[in-house]
Amino acid sequence: MSNGAVLVVEDEHLILLDVESALEEDGFEVVAAQNAAQAMAAFDAKPGKFKGLGTDIGLGAGKSGWELARHLRQANPAIPCQIVPPC
After folding, report:
1. What does the alpha-carbon distance between residue 78 and residue 52 come to, in Å, rounded to a whole number?
2. 33 within 8 A of 71, measured Cβ to Cβ
3. Domain boundaries, the chain
4. DSSP character for 79?
5. Burial, 9: exposed, middle or buried (Cβ in 10 Å; 0-12, 13-18, 19+)?
6. pLDDT for 41-69, tens place per residue?
7. What's the rounded Cα separation, in Å, for the pair 27 and 12?
8. What is this structure's pTM?
9. Dist CA 35 CA 14 (whole Å)
10. Per-residue DSSP letters for 28-57?
11. Is there a contact between 73 and 82 (Cβ–Cβ < 8 Å)?
12. What 8-state DSSP symbol labels residue 60?
């Protein structure tokens, strides 16, 4: 049984895999993306599917984690967003 889909966005591949594995172990369906453009495309295709967002702030070239969160909240103002600053 799934707890809902979580959109996880991280430009460092090994970190993305670790976060994805941990959330899947807790019963979440994870949709992983390595940049904001990929994440926005996945969200825009099925916005009602997602129960939350976990993202890094700095995602390389393109939009930041902050801009991604604002995009998601335009469609769903109540979606939980966890934005992690770089270490």
Report:
1. 9
2. no
3. 34-76
4. -
5. buried
6. 999 999 999 999 999 998 988 999 999 99
7. 23
8. 0.90
9. 14
10. -EEEEESSHHHHHHHHHH-GGGEEEEEEES
11. no
12. S
